[in-house]
From TrEMBL:
Any single GO CC term annotated in Swiss-Prot or TrEMBL for this entry: extracellular space
Name under which the protein is recorded: Protein Wnt
Annotated localization: Secreted, Extracellular space, Extracellular matrix
PANTHER family, per database record: PROTEIN WNT-2B (PTHR12027:SF93), WNT RELATED (PTHR12027)
Keyword Disulfide bond tagged: yes
Gene Ontology biological process terms, A to Z: animal organ development; canonical Wnt signaling pathway; cell fate commitment; neuron differentiation
Source organism per UniProt: Amphiprion ocellaris (Clown anemonefish)
InterPro entries with a match to the protein in the record: Wnt, Wnt2, Wnt_C, Wnt_CS
The entry's keywords: Developmental protein, Disulfide bond, Extracellular matrix, Glycoprotein, Lipoprotein, Secreted, Signal, Wnt signaling pathway
Protein purpose: Ligand for members of the frizzled family of seven transmembrane receptors.
Pfam short name (any one): wnt
Region (Disordered): 1-24
Similarity remark: Belongs to the Wnt family.
Keyword rRNA-binding part of the UniProt annotation: no
Length: 381
């Protein structure tokens, strides 16, 4: 069931408790590496998350992953091979997040050796948090589904439910091949990712659950039909088809557009769902990202809040968009530096089978945002 009428991406359920995660359980086994122990001791704790699995790689040890709640830890112990897939998937969705926000003041920057991955930025229930929760949930679906189809997991394989004949705009075809098992990917992602949010009810938990589901559904939205032709001389009189996931970039592009149109919401009085903040809003929130708090401007570094600021960021002098120097630098101005750039040019195909290129040098102007200027009164001692 949905949170409120028309609010289909979120699900009714319990939410998160405090923003500080439960302390990681101690493991009696001596198998924990010194490296992970040092990370656990010296890394600042804010709101540890399963996202940190991506930083551990092959060193995933369920009892010592900071930020896992009991349900997630149990799933980790039951399915260690799935955790490896989620670890690889985490790297992929973080790269996608950074690609989507590469021209924005907040550029999905991560903190090395920090259990929170993104720092305190995610404590704010902003549209940036909405995007991160959606893309991370989508990343788990994508990673698990791909691993199932590639035969890397014991618990799942291809989707064998599609049988018989069907048709599309090109005519009839037979179901066959190896369809991606998107339903299993969604099922496991829901159980694992949503577990933390189902512990205590509050507005942030409901927001996260809604955006998590939007992310999962975004992957399914771009399933595509792939076919193999049969017949005389490849006439394609007979076709065998299956469903496959599209490239993850399509999911990233889609969720990035949803970020642009994200809807501000407030929790209803009985604490069971949301209301749209704008009383004049007439549309459906079913497939939209939602947020509770407005975003900061991200212009200046604020270590306490986790904002890195835009000082030193490269900007586009001629652009009027978010990557333009006026917007990126928040009106502080920019510095220009002439740099020598080497690129491949005059490429020619050489039989057989290589491409030979020359190295060409040119000089380009690189513009970077000026740092924040301290008020004069702060320099008086």
């Amino acid at each position: 069931s949905f949170l409120t009428k028309g609010f289909g991406c979120g699900e009714r359920g319990a939410g998160r408790g405090s923003q500080t995660a439960d302390a990681p359980e101690r493991s009696a086994a001596p198998r924990v590496s010194v490296f992970i122990l040092l990370l656990l001791i010296f890394t600042p704790r804010v709101d540890s998350s399963w996202w940190y699995i991506g930083a551990l790689g092959a060193r995933v040890i369920c009892d010592n992953i900071p930020g896992l709640v009991n349900k997630q830890r149990q799933l980790c112990q039951q399915h260690p091979d799935l955790m490896q897939s989620i670890s690889e998937g985490a790297k992929e969705w973080i790269r996608e997040c950074q690609h989507q926000f590469r021209h924005h003041r907040w550029n999905c920057s991560t903190l090395d050796r920090d259990h929170t991955v993104f720092g305190r930025v995610m404590l704010r229930s902003s549209r940036e948090a909405a995007f991160v929760y959606a893309i991370s949930s989508a990343g788990v679906v994508y990673a698990i589904t791909r691993a199932c189809s590639q035969g890397e997991l014991k618990i799942c394989n291809c989707d064998s439910n599609k049988r018989g004949q069907a048709s599309d705009d090109k005519g009839n075809f037979d179901w066959g091949g190896c369809s991606d098992n998107i339903n299993y990917g969604i099922k496991f992602a829901k159980a694992f990712v949503d577990a933390r949010e189902k512990m205590v009810k509050d507005a942030r938990a409901l927001m996260n659950l809604h955006n998590n589901r939007c992310g999962r559904m975004a992957v399914k939205r771009f399933m595509k039909l792939e076919c193999k032709c049969h017949g005389v001389s490849g006439s394609c009189s007979l076709r065998t088809c299956w469903l496959a996931m599209s490239d993850f970039r399509r999911t990233g592009d889609y969720l990035r557009k949803k970020y642009n149109t994200a809807i501000e919401v407030t929790m209803n009085q009985d604490g069971t769902g949301f209301m749209v903040a704008d009383k004049d809003f007439k549309g459906s929130t079913k497939n939209e990202l939602v947020y509770v708090e407005n975003s900061p401007d991200y212009c200046l570094m604020d270590r306490a809040a986790g904002y890195l600021g835009t000082a030193g960021r490269v900007c586009n002098k001629s652009s009027r968009g978010t990557d333009g120097c006026e917007v990126m630098c928040c009106g502080r101005g920019y510095d220009t530096m002439r740099v020598k750039r080497v690129t491949k040019c005059e490429c020619k195909f050489k039989w057989c089978c290589a491409v030979e290129c020359k190295d060409c040098e040119d000089v380009v102007d690189v513009h970077t945002c000026k740092p924040h200027k301290r008020p004069d009164w702060q320099d008086i001692t």
